[in-house]
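Why GFA family protein? Reviewers of the renewal asked for a concrete example.
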Amino acid sequence: MSETNQQQTFTGGCLCGNIRYTVTGNPIAPLVCSCAHCKKLSGGPMTAWVGFLLQGFSWDGPGGEPTWFATWPGVNRGFCPQCGARICALDDGASAVFVTIMSLDDHSVVVPEVQRFPEDAVSWLPQVPVGDRATAV
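Here is what the prediction returned.
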């Protein structure tokens, strides 16, 4: 994470631009997840996530909020109903939303710091090292 506590503004959205968001705040727990659930949802070997507090987060594209799909009781995934892009995860009662790092307009500013479910990772990609990784800002 950044060495400063200065609030940052991030923007992002889906592939077609229908769903857009703006958030002012610091990134929380940037990670990649290799669980079976994330692999199925993404169609790839992992999903890269970063959290932001809901305070300071807004949906501001022409499509408003994404379409929500409950993947488990209390676990909701947001996607664009037009282009199908997976954008976020929001648990019932949570104080933070996790967006896919690749949905950020500038995804180079957030670097995953840990890999969740490394035991479920595909064997043909290196794992994200734990520790010593910092989020660039």
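Residues 36-42 form the longest helix (7 residues). This is the kind of structural detail the renewal will allow us to pursue systematically.
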